[in-house]
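Per reviewer request, we include the raw input and output of the structure prediction for the construct analysed in the revised manuscript.
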Amino acid sequence: MTPNIHEVGKRRSISPALSRSWLLVNGARPETFGPAAASPADQILLDIEDAVDPARKNDARQSVVEWFRSGGTGWVRINDRSTKYWADDVAALVGLPGIDGVMLAKTESAAHVTETFDRMHGQSPVIALIESALGIEEAVSMAKARGTFRLAFGSGDYRRDTGTAADNLAMAYPRSRLVIASRVGNLPGPIDGPTIGTSHPTLREQSNVAVALGMTGRLCLNIDQLAIVNEALAPTPSDIAWAQDFLSLFEAGGREIRDGSDLPRLRRAEEIQRLARAFGMEPE
């Protein structure tokens, strides 16, 4: 039987701080909420912003509210602070059971994050979705703002704002800015924008680029993208084997530091092991 809005959404087993795949789900299509919740997505994002026609905003918002009141769980992408919809979004969502947090669209200042967080009574962490040149330049202040949980990159709107091409070189600067800002703000790695289309080779290539730049999550537009994103943003089997070998040798040697490369390698090995455990990838 196909899940529907009245079926309980599962709590995700992977921490949102480590989550790789963030599945956007059209808030105006409540019949898709259940299948999304049952999918391999690390997190689901019920979208009442760009996915929804302005004439359907109220209906979509109410469908999302009903999802949570019926026992569903997940995150919500809300409209940006400059719109007339933002206050209604926040007022409708505050205090709902099962809501893990909100993604604030088109964030351009630390105040946008903090005001949203405070309006949510400090109960819902905020992912700042950065989609403009101004947002990229203000990324460090947003990363350090009260209430910010992670940064995310709205790559499509960023390209429209700046006229930047979609190629990897042109998009390296804004992605790197978000990676650096996240580190300065002591946040988890940022969430990259989605790949448009269904080409798996393209999705894998773009996911590998995101990983190389230091991003640790990706927005996904459909369920078919999840497996590739989860695989690409997880440690490889060879990484896991190297980490286990290094840590075993390090322990066998009494954890003695032998040269200047040991501490960086130790940190890398421990991080790989932590992620492998979180993603259920450790070999028996």
